[in-house]
């Protein structure tokens, strides 16, 4: 089964027969089992599945955080197949934004610095001005000089979103973006995420087990045992 994007749309991600095996020979575990998927530019896609279904591993491969064991992968027209980790890191820089459940903010940097420093390292012009504008856009203009420990979980997630979208990437990946948040904060965070996707006309891929969150997306793919078992356009 090939999970296909909307007909006629430009394909942003194309994956064919993706497999992922982790562990040494004696304890090797098959994580992904021949996944085929097309994702269109500008599309919002939820990948649903229970724990252990392979959805986060698929995100890791599609985003370039993990190398597939075998298969073909192109992202934004660039062939990712067979690239080593350093080359993958360079390929996704500025083009792919990744939001992880654990936030991964640097504790010794303020909210502003957490967003600005990656931009500065990437050579972006006016990184602190861009970072401030992005934090204002996610409702944190009053928290620029606060450190992660001084922010609530929802505020930390907003910083993580601002950091991911500040370079205006063509693709945004979010892995369980509301997993550590209460229901009220979750709704607010999801609104922010979709607003920032729309602002940059980005492709959005959300990994989740939350059906209401998946219902916000234009397309829902379900996984089980490392395979795609259904693909529904909404």
Model description:
The protein has 234 residues and is of the alpha/beta class. It is 31% helix and 29% strand. A hairpin with a 2-residue loop joins strand 10 and strand 11. Helix 3 runs parallel beside helix 5, helix 4 crosses helix 5 and helix 5 runs parallel beside helix 6. The longest helix has 18 residues.
Describe, in short, the structure shown:
Helices cover 31% and strands 29% of the residues. It is of the alpha/beta class and 234 residues long. The strands form two sheets. The protein has a six-stranded mixed sheet, with helices on both faces. It has a five-stranded mixed sheet with strand order 1-3-2-5-6.
Structural features:
single chain; 234 residues; alpha/beta; six-stranded mixed beta sheet; five-stranded mixed beta sheet; 7 helices; 11 strands
């Amino acid at each position: 089964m090939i999970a296909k994007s909307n007909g006629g749309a430009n394909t942003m991600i194309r994956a064919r027969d993706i497999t992922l095996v982790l562990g040494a020979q004696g304890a090797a575990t098959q994580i992904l089992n021949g996944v085929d998927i097309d994702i269109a530019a500008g599309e919002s896609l939820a990948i649903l599945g229970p724990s252990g279904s392979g959805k986060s591993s698929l995100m890791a491969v599609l985003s370039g955080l993990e190398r597939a064991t075998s298969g073909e992968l192109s992202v934004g027209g660039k062939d990712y197949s067979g690239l080593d980790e350093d080359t993958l890191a360079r390929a996704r820089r500025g083009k792919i934004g990744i939001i992880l459940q654990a936030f991964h903010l640097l504790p010794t940097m303020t909210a502003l610095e957490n967003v600005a420093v990656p931009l500065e390292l990437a050579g972006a012009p006016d990184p602190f001005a861009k970072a401030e504008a992005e934090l204002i856009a996610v409702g944190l203009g009053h928290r620029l000089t606060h450190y992660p420990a001084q922010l609530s979980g929802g505020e930390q997630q907003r910083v993580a979103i601002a950091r991911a979208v500040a370079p205006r990437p063509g693709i945004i990946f979010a892995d369980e973006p509301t997993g550590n948040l209460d229901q009220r904060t979750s709704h607010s965070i999801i609104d922010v995420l979709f607003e920032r996707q729309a602002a940059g006309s980005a492709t959005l891929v959300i990994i989740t087990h939350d059906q209401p969150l998946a219902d916000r997306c234009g397309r829902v793919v379900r996984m089980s045992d490392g395979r795609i078992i259904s693909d529904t356009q909404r």
